[in-house]
């Protein structure tokens, strides 16, 4: 069980497409240490439940479906659709504009109120981030099978004396992931505090960036998932880095998803929200 916990901690610490994009999105929307930790906990709670089930499936031989079929693209698509819908819900009725919203039947996002008062004081800003959705996303994302999960499902779980101990291996792995995701959630949530903004400004930037990241990141996940489903060979393309640690040992589709969702979309929208706030604080 101890090995499973350590593997889970490594899984939660290293940039993984099944954990980082979702934890990042919900954590920055929580804009506080406690909120970020809760986001990591809620996501990992759903993830842990799924890994418990998956480890039991590994013991029973049911996880062989992963060896017979490439399900990764479908998981990406499901995660992407969930993120997209969550982001759309958060943005609907707000004064924040994002591309493609009209294609989903969105309403006009720019309001007269936002023009009269600072953005972080407007009542029609982005909705609070519902962390219960993070639990649902954690459960869905957990069905993706990376290097760490493969060890749990195909090596450790089958060696257990019965299915209950095998399930406990999955639970232990989830707990290890949870420990690191809670820590990372706190770090993500406090990024904008480095800019010395007010509490209201941090809330606005965090919520708007979370909504945009879920929305646009969901589109990215769905598109890349569709490409992997249509062209399975894409999922196997990877450039070795020479690092033996899983998630750091190569650059492939998973790495692209993390960099695109967290690095480009996530941090890009934090910067965009910051510029919006500063622009209103220092009018020309």
* SSE order, one letter for each helix or strand: HHHHHHHHHHEEH
**Lateral strand order in the biggest sheet:** 1-2
The number of distinct structural domains comes to: 1
How many helices in DSSP terms? 11
Mean pLDDT: 85
Strand content: under 5%
Total strand segments: 2
Features:
2 strands; globular; mainly alpha; two-stranded antiparallel ribbon
Question: Care to give the gist of this entry?
Answer:
The protein has helices spanning 2-13, 20-28, 33-60, 65-68, 72-91, 112-116, 132-141, 147-156, 163-189, 199-230, 253-281, and strands spanning 238-240, 250-252. The chain is mainly α.
In words, what does this structure look like?
Helix content is 65%, strand content 2%. It has 284 residues and is an all-alpha fold. The chain has one domain (2-281). The longest helix has 32 residues, at 199-230. The protein is globular, with a radius of gyration of 20 Å. Residues 101-117 have low confidence and may be disordered.
Describe how the helices and strands are arranged:
Elements: H1 2-13, H2 20-28, H3 33-60, H4 65-68, H5 72-91, H6 112-116, H7 132-141, H8 147-156, H9 163-189, H10 199-230, E1 238-240, E2 250-252, H11 253-281
Antiparallel strand pairs: 1-2
């Amino acid at each position: 069980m101890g090995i499973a916990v350590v593997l889970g901690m490594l899984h939660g610490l290293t940039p993984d497409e099944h954990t980082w994009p979702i934890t990042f999105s919900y954590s920055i929307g929580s804009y506080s240490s406690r909120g970020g930790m809760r986001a990591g906990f809620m996501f990992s709670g759903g993830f842990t439940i799924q890994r418990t089930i998956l480890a039991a499936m590994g013991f029973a031989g049911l996880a062989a479906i992963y060896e017979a079929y490439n399900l990764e693209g479908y998981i990406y698509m499901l995660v992407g659709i969930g993120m997209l819908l969550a982001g759309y819900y958060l943005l609907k009725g707000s004064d924040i504009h994002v591309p493609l919203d009209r294609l989903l039947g969105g309403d006009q996002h720019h309001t007269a109120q936002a023009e009269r008062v600072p953005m972080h004081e407007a009542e029609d800003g982005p909705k609070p981030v519902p962390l219960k959705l993070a639990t649902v996303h954690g459960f869905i994302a957990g069905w993706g099978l990376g290097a760490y999960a493969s060890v749990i499902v195909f090596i450790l779980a089958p060696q257990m004396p019965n299915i209950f101990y095998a399930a406990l291996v999955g639970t232990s792995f989830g707990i290890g992931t949870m420990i690191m995701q809670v820590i990372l959630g706190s770090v993500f949530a406090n990024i904008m505090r480095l800019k010395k903004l007010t509490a209201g400004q941090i809330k606005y930037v965090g919520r708007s960036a979370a909504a945009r990241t879920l929305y646009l990141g969901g589109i990215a996940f769905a598109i890349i998932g569709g490409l992997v489903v249509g062209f399975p060979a894409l999922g196997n393309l990877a450039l070795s880095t020479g690092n033996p640690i899983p998630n750091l040992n190569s650059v492939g589709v998973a790495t692209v998803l993390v960099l695109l969702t967290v690095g480009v979309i996530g941090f890009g929208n934090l910067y965009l929200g910051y510029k919006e706030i500063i622009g209103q604080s220092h009018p020309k």
